[in-house]
Design goal:
Elements lengths: L5 E3 L2 E7 L1 H19 L7 E6 L3 H10 L5 E11 L2 E8 L11 E9 L3 H12 L4 E9 L12 E5 L5 E2 L15 E4 L3
The structure holds guanosine-5'-monophosphate.
């Protein structure tokens, strides 16, 4: 990982999680999902929560060894570096989930508002089973009763970018993760 800070809009971010560490976490998550879905007779849906989870979902799918269908949805609850508390459904679901098992792929779970609203939406639409798979979790902030089935890494409550995650649409590029530099 390059040991240099980056500037995005009005903020500075410093190196935080190197790609190699993330790769290992993604390997471990994929191994668990593969074990749970090995020999499945249905075709589960892998649901990518756009845009942040694009890279993570791609990386998981490269590792998945069971047949699955890729579907996307675009949701947003963040403005700048703060959760607004309201989850907006921007793009809608691109497939019928009735009677299907769904594995939600998220970049990061913070308050859990997004994932909880999405799970409710999928259950309301008739999904037979919904699992949550997230690259990162902020356990100090997440207080929802829903269990997270697969978690790559836990991080403290700080705003991060990189590896698909943005600050007002900038900073998604690159394999490493950066954290806001308040110094
Ligand atoms: P939640 O609904 O759990 O509060 O927030 C989840 C969504 O907020 C994530 O999908 C992500 O888009 C955004 N988010 C939460 N924490 C961060 C963060 O530290 N950095 C960035 N870039 N986005 C975040």
């Amino acid at each position: 990982m390059e040991n240099r800070k980056i500037n995005l809009w009005d903020k500075t971010f410093k190196p935080y999680i190197p790609a190699e560490k993330l790769e290992k976490a993604i390997d471990a998550v994929a191994e668990k999902v593969n074990a749970d879905f090995a020999n499945c007779e249905d075709i589960p849906i892998v649901l990518c929560v756009l845009n942040g989870a694009i890279m993570f979902t791609g990386e998981l799918m490269q590792r998945f060894t069971f047949p699955c269908e890729l579907v996307s949805i675009k949701l947003s609850s963040y403005q700048g570096t703060q959760s607004t508390g309201t989850v907006l459904n921007i793009l809608g679901l691109t497939a019928d989930v009735r009677g299907r098992r769904v594995i939600i792929c998220e970049d990061i779970v913070d308050t859990g508002n997004t994932i909880t609203a999405l799970k409710e939406l999928l259950v309301a639409k008739g999904s037979s089973d919904v699992r949550i798979c997230t690259m990162l979790l902020k356990p100090d902030v997440y207080k929802k009763p829903d269990k997270l089935d697969y978690v790559g890494m836990e991080i403290p409550n700080a705003f991060i970018v990189g590896h698909g995650l943005d600050y007002n649409e900038l900073g998604r590029t690159g394999k490493d993760i950066y954290v806001i530099d308040n110094d």
